[in-house]
Design goal:
The structure is a single chain. The protein has a domain of 65 residues. With 127 residues, the chain is mostly helical. The protein contains five helices and no strands.
Length: 127
């Protein structure tokens, strides 16, 4: 997935492209996340399991940077609250597996952008 991040950045710069890039990131990460629990740790030493967890955390950190950039480019009028809830659900799943935090910077930005329940503001903050 990290190999296609330049393509996601290019997509995000097209008209309405940021919403497509955002959706692609969430779907691809969701698909990857659904496979993390299966067989994790089977036949591995504790050190190997820990090494895998660190690699997964590094991966999610890198994808968070891509998602943060794409989120900043989103057009007004998208359902931020729905996206936040979907991401929080994935975060809980990963937390149960010892992988956290999940997109902390992107979620923080989205919560600031969300109206109402997250105390958002009209325009996105600058990071």
């Amino acid at each position: 997935m990290l190999k296609i991040t330049p393509e996601l950045h290019r997509l995000a710069r097209l008209p309405n492209g940021a919403s497509f890039a955002h959706e692609q990131i969430i779907k691809m990460v969701g698909n990857l996340t659904s496979h993390l629990g299966s067989g994790m740790g089977e036949g591995k030493t504790q050190d190997e399991v820990e090494e895998d967890r660190h690699a997964q955390q590094d991966f999610f950190h890198q994808i968070d940077e891509v998602l943060l950039d794409v989120t900043k480019q989103r057009e007004p009028g998208w359902n931020i609250s729905r996206e936040i809830k979907r991401m929080e659900k994935n975060a809980e799943y990963l937390k149960d597996m010892g992988i956290e935090p999940y997109f902390p910077r992107s979620l923080a930005l989205m919560r600031q952008m969300a109206p109402g329940e997250y105390g958002g503001q009209a325009s996105p903050p600058r990071f």
